[in-house]
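Box 3.1 A note on notation
Throughout this textbook, protein chains are presented in two layers. The first layer is the amino acid sequence; the second is a token string describing backbone geometry. Keep the layers aligned when reading.
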Amino acid sequence: MLSGQSIGTVEVSERSSYKRGSTLEMAWVGGTPQDKLNVELLRDSVVQQKIAENIINTQKFSWSIPMNIKPGDNYVVRVIKTDSTEVISVTQPFIIRRKIPLLLKVIPIVAVGTVFVVVAAGSGSGTSTSDDLPTPIKPN
């Protein structure tokens, strides 16, 4: 999975998706210990966030995925030299998922709304009883 070429692969765990709030552990081969690097998050080849800037090339990095990153697919992390923007390594594409699935956030709201509607509809005015009905007119 690692490459000794100038543009190598950033090694991450075998997972293809990560939840917001989880930690992405990265390791790569490339560059020299004297290199200063930037680590960037890209989606569809567009930089979404600069994860780290001007760091020493230790050939490893840990990144805690922020909760405000938009869930989706086709994310990659790119490691580049700060002085020349030469790409040292890039991850394979991966997916960022919500920490709590959206459905689990919506179900309680729908349940509370349903209970409210049922209670409100069942209570009526609170004064109506079967004794309040008008007496029907009897035919002669």
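Residues 84 and 94 are 26 Å apart (CA to CA). Strands lie at 8-9, 17-19, 23-27, 36-43, 46-56, 60-64, 72-81, 87-90, 94-97.
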